[in-house]
Each structure stands twice: as structure tokens, then as C-alpha cells.
Protein 1
Amino acid sequence: MFKVILYEFNSTLKQPALYRGYRLLAIDGSDFALPYDKHSPFLCNIQTRKTPSADNKLTTKGACLIHANILYDIANCCYLDCLLQSRKGMDERSAAVHMLQNLRLQHRYIVLMDRGYESFNLFEHGNRLPDCNYVVRLRTKDKGAIREISALPDQECDLEMTFNITNSAKQKKLHPEYHKINAPNRRYKDKYSPKYRTAHWDFESFCPVHCRIVKLKINDPQSGSTKWEVLATNLSSNDFPLSEMKKLYHLRWDIESSFRKLKYDLGAVCFYSKKPTFQEIELYSQLIMFNVVNRIISLCRVADAHRKWPHEIDFKEAANIVHRYYTTSMKDDPKQMIEEIEAYHHPVRKGRKYPRPLRFQGSVSLNYRIS
């Protein structure tokens, strides 16, 4: 029910903010720690320390973690969809495909994804879905990188590539240059080894996957090291040249900032329910509250004419004011609430870098709450 409320609230946004005519989206996942319950479906084993124990086995501990796969609208600062999975059996790539297939928007959109979403199956879904454009960061020279990507020269380049994909061992034997996906059409056993892994492939046995590969130099020239990043996309090089792609992918960081606000400003890092169903309801209610606060913030105005830096509304103070407004049965005038929110703002310094000094950490009182 709360997921439907999330969808219905998002449908009330009639004039969304656009980025060069596109809805700018991002997909990423985040873990939420739940109260321990040995019967919880979210129970998993986590490593408690990096050093091996005396019997040459890594020390693990049971914990309840829920993994939230989230679709975020960067330009409008709202969560569009969420798919919850157990941390033990999470599959971020399948979750991303599922959310993109369920997405219904009136505009073309660009979805930004990090290296964990590198998948030929996801690329082909993005090529075939209507109005869908993707930008995915790829592995470069580490283990698991695509061999054509590893062979790219150490210089900025913008290339159109075609990857021949098959899930047939016969085709792979006849054409060694093909990429074979371990996604068999049939399963001959009911049970497999826990170490057995299969990939997802939802298309023909042989399929050429077309995408544009962009290699960028991201480090500062004054720093001694040279670093490269590679992006896969189906955006046109005429509309989004190489210089624009670097700026575009940098906007993906907004979804990471939204997780910080969701967990620590709204308090989603703390759960009060013990049953898994109620815990999911709590998380969806926090997503809805995040969207409500940002929708109200979009109605506020802060004058920047006589200030050195542009200012933005403080999210945490706005969340507290909105929470107080709804808990008092909404007796106050909404205009008064907006005027109160506009009083809390802070400067925005783009590209600010400074050393963070170490500070002494004191004890925390038992009655302390995260929000």
C-alpha cells in the first residue's frame, strides 16, 4: 500500500524539472541495518574483522540487513521507485531492469549508474526500452573488465562499439571473439552448488549489443597520478560530446547525498518495528516523507542577489518543520510553514575542497536520537 502511495504522490508532479530536455535519473542501492531477528528473511552473515581467526576462517556474525534498490530523480530531488531485497540474495542489475521496465514517464530520460550495474543484459534493455538513455560506469583494468575496454589506449576517446553476445557454447566455440553469457536456456538439475552462478540474459541466443564507449581523464593535472574512467552510453555524441559526459556523470553523486539525508536527517537509519512487513512500511514511509519535504522546499525562495554564494534551504530544518506541521493536525497556515522554512538556509560552494581536521569524539548520551 505504501508503495502505491509513493507512486501516486509522484504522479502529482505535473511540470518536472528537466536537464536539457531529459528527466535525469540515477539508480543505486543502499543497506539498512534492522533489529536482529534470527527468523527474519533479511538475516545474513557479515564479516566482523578483516584478519582471519586462529582456525584460518574469517570471523562472521549474523545481522539483519535490507538492501534498497532506489530510482532517484536528480533534477526534482525525489525517489521514483524502490525495490527491497535481502542483502544475502541481492541482485542490483535485475532490480534496475525491473524498475526501468515499470517506469512510466512523459519525457525522455537519462539514467546514471555506477560500476556495479555493468551488464550486457542491462545495456540491451536500455537500447530497446522507449525513451530510455543510460550512462553506466565500467571497470577498466581490474578483474572482470570487458576485454575491449581493457585494450583501450590511455587517452581520451569516444568510440561506437558492437559486442557480439551469445549464451550458446556452440557459437562461442565457432566464434571465440564472441562474449558468452552463462545464462542457459534449460536447467537439467533441480539443485546446484551454492557456488554455481548464472547471469541474466533476456534476449536471443545471439544478439549484437551496440553502445557508445567514452574514456575520460578525471584526475587533476596538478596531481602526480593519471586516472581514467570509462562510460557506456547510448546518448548521441552530437548532443552529449565527451566534455559534457564528464559533467553529466558527476551529477550521479546527488543520489549518494540523498541517502545521507534519508538516513540521518529523516532518521531512516533507525527502525522501531521488529516484523519484516512493518520494517518495509517504515522504509517506504521515509521515502514518501523525503519526497514531501523536497516538494515543499521547491516552493520556497531564497534571495541570492546580495550574497557571495548561492544559498539553499537546509533539509533537516525543513523536515523538522514539516513534521511538526503534520503532527499538529495541520492547523497552521501552509504559507506560514513555508516562510518558516525559508529562514533556514546555508551557502552552496561548488567544488569546495579543504582538509578535515581530526576532532575528539566524546561520549553520547543514552537518550540521544539520530533525528
Protein 2
Amino acid sequence: MKAIGVAPVCLSCHGGTEKISDSVQARIDKLYPHDKATGFKEGDLRGAVSIKQPHDK
């Protein structure tokens, strides 16, 4: 498993209100009306990736 941390580029859509432009916020509101994936800061844990692969017997 590998952690997905918030990088500076992520903040334009997932940062606090001071980081998200009005035009981006309007688009997020239109496409994702129930979105709660904002308010993150650089370095926050955003998720994780896990890969499963069957072993040959």
C-alpha cells in the first residue's frame, strides 16, 4: 500500500477556499454538487493505492 499525499498542484481543486479560484469552484459545484473533498493542506493524507495480484501456484 502506498499513501497519496496532497501536493501543491492538488490544492487548486482540493485546497481551502483561499486556494480555489471562483471559476474552479463554480465548475466543482456544477459537476460535483455534494463534493466534500476540499480543505486539504499540502502534505495531508488524501488516500492510498493498493494493488492485488494473484500468485501463481
